[in-house]
Amino acid sequence: MAGKRILMLAGDFVEDYEIMVPFQMLLMVGHKVDVVSPGKKSGEQVATAIHDFEGHQTYTEKRGHNFTLNATYVGTKAEDYDALVIPGGRAPEQLSTDESVLDLIRVFVAADKPIAAVCHGSQLLAAANVISGRKVSAYPACRAEMILAGADYQAIAIDEAVTDGKLVTAPAWPAHPAWIGQFLKVLGTKIEA
């Protein structure tokens, strides 16, 4: 299997597990992953947040690690990549106000390239207006946004994922085995035990 070139979109207070785990897993199986953030250069960092499920009505949030970007956002082109990954956390809310980010996502969708979004990452898909008629999961608090964007919102368990064509989405980081597993299938990644 030839490794794919994958772009990951990040911003301050991206969810810690939702950037760290997919980044490391995709590298582990041989893909090249560039992580970028608007307004930041390669070598700079984004702050992360840890969202946990501790028995309250919603998740709790704590400061996470710093994540060092390995590519620069300026000049990033969808044409240079085979797929896109959008982690969740607080970052998608802010990134959704950046028209260049939304345009970048639209190019990936128009080219029918694989896209994986987890948790609040689906907010970027809604803001880019690219999920109408698609089966999409997201963190349950994002349900209304998905429906308003015309998506067929999938109310699945927190550890499940859904694939619609080349779009793979999941509600939160407990779904990593299902979400990343389905994304690897969409990418055509072969893993042998």
Automatic annotation (TrEMBL):
Molecular function per GO: peptidase activity
Any keyword Protease? yes
**Annotated InterPro entries:** C56_PfpI-like, Class_I_gatase-like, DJ-1/PfpI
Alphabetized CDD domains for the sequence:
GATase1_PfpI_1
Gene3D superfamilies per the UniProt record, alphabetical: 3.40.50.880
Tell whether Hydrolase is among the UniProt keywords.
yes
Q: Which GO terms describe its biological process?
A: proteolysis
Going by the UniProt record, its keywords in alphabetical order are: Hydrolase, Protease
Cross-referenced Pfam families, in alphabetical order?
Answer: DJ-1_PfpI
Which family does the entry's similarity section mention? Belongs to the peptidase C56 family.
Q: What is this protein called?
A: Protease
This chain's source organism reads Acetobacter cibinongensis
